[in-house]
Amino acid sequence: MKIKITIALLLVVLGGTSFLSDAPPKLHYLKLTFPKDWPKPPKDIFATNPLTEEGFELGKKLFYDGRLSKDGNVPCASCHQQFASFSTYDHDFSHGFNNSFTRRNAPPIFNLAWMKELHWDGAINHIEVQPLAPLTAANEMAESIENVLRKLNADTAYKRMFKAAFGDATINSQHMLKALAQFTGSIISCNSKYDQVKKGTASFSMSEEQGYKIFKAKCNACHTEPLFTDNSFRNNGLDINLQLADKGRMGISNDPSDSLKFKVPSLRNLYLTAPYMHDGRMNTLQEVLQHYRNGINATQPTLDSLLKNRIAVSKKEEVDLLAFLYTLTDTEMVKNKRFAATATYKMHEGPH
Amino acid sequence: MRTLFICCFLCFACVDGIAQPAHKKTTPTKNGYVKITFKNTINGQPVVLNDSVYTNPFRETYRIKKLKYYISNFQFSLVSIKKIVPVKRCFLINQADDSSLSITLEVPATRYDEMGFLLGVDSVLNTSGAQTGALDPLNDMFWTWHSGYIMQKLEGTSPQSNIVNNKFEYHIGGYEGESSVLQTIWLNHAISVEKGKTTSIIINADIGKYWNAAYPVKISETPVCSTPGALAKKLAGNFSTVFSIADVIQ
Prior knowledge:
- The complex is a heterodimer of chains A (about 350) and B (about 250).
- By secondary structure, chain A is mainly alpha-helical.
- Chain A folds into two domains: about 55-190 and about 335-345, Cytochrome c-like domain (Cytochrome Bc1 Complex, Chain D, domain 2, Orthogonal Bundle); about 195-330, Cytochrome Bc1 Complex, Chain D, domain 2.
- Chain A has 13 helices and four strands.
- Chain B has one domain (about 30-250).
- Chain B has helices at about 1-20, 125, 230-240; strands spanning about 30-40, 45, 55, 60-80, 85-95, 100-110, 110-120, 150-155, 165-175, 185-190, 200-205, 225, 245-250.
- In chain B, β1 (about 30-40) and β2 form a beta hairpin.
- Chain B starts with a helix and ends with a strand.
- Residues about 1-25 of chain B have low confidence and may be disordered.
- Chains A and B meet through α1, α4, α5 and α7 of A and α1 of B.
């Protein structure tokens, strides 16, 4: 009897040590891969957050877990839906906690490694601190970091995953944020038809080819290939929405010359991310082109100089341009199971 | 039975060993310590949160609820040989947490003429992603909607404040170019450090000075600062004047 107890105790102790010990866990390191001819990211977003299978999987679980929000119903993935290229499908503004709305259109998530700043106004200076904004915003997940950590620390599955990824079963904000960054930073869009044409494994139709020429002449200066954004802040001549009074970059820099400037959005996966612009004011790409053709407000002093004379796109050109823009749709990325919620947990895990 | 028991005991010992931090580095014999204590005061009296009522130079009365600020990148200088000993660490001084008010640093034993520190968190740490310890966002000193640390936080109430609940809230920050509020404070004082021993440095932070240094802060006119920019710079300028060395005890 006594022996049995001692053995049991011994097992508990041994089991306990392997879970709690500081022995370095075996990590499966990953590399961010993208086409060779792409520009290098301005900085290595994983320089102090080595990308591993364990960290990525943990980040994914967090991304899909409603418990990160106050009422359990607003995971990251509720606003960033994979089938919509991780934007909010068919919504100008996304729904946050308690029937609130976001103040801006949720951008899609991919190719974050090339962004020096995140959010439409570049308010966020590092991918790792980005989740703090939605987690704590009253109109998004409305939760406190303390509470999130309390909930995660009460879950042994999480403790095990954090232990595996970061060598520490006590979950802290730094490891949670780094895990999320491993997931969001790994989402790369580089396999659209456009990319396949570049690789030489597909070819454009006549119309797409024509559209590509028009694109290069009229849009590429800002929506620069191969990312289809130069990640700069510019004013493309939208009238200010007086109710929102959103001055974009100026709200961050306090510099009047930044008034009404927003981060140039990538045009990749455009067909999945309607509605368009920072406030989702345009529902179709036809409307967008109509804006560039004759909707630009030329009285704004900060209007981008490239748009002073508007962009003439004839109706014939429009057809070809839209055909080209369609080739930027990366079905592989939006169907990639690697980025999808795993079966063991669902987006809405129910009340907690 | 016995062996099992011993084995079990060894296991416990082993767990214990693992739980300990890696062997503490033995102090190189040439080093000593400085224990720096921040005493936040008003009119020569320690700041008492919530309960004490103070009066600023504009005859506005106020209570303080929160007083927190970052101190980092210590430097100890030997003026005679133009040498500076830097200690790159970051601390959050929080009036609500006694244990945060004293900092112990290891430095080469010698006689220093001056000590300096950065009031705030340097721009590298502001842009390096998720941090821990003093810089953990849990400390409520990180702007989530506009990345960057709040370098100084002074919050309270005053009947002269015309905003909700008679609050005042100074969240002072900004690390970039024009809007940077970062300042290195140098305090002149002989500081002798002997090897293996601790020298205590008492820094007086006279918070009363904050209201009327280079820039007059009237609660009735300026009850809030919540973004980097011109106002934050002026307030930080005021804050930088509060520090002096009250005593050095060997």
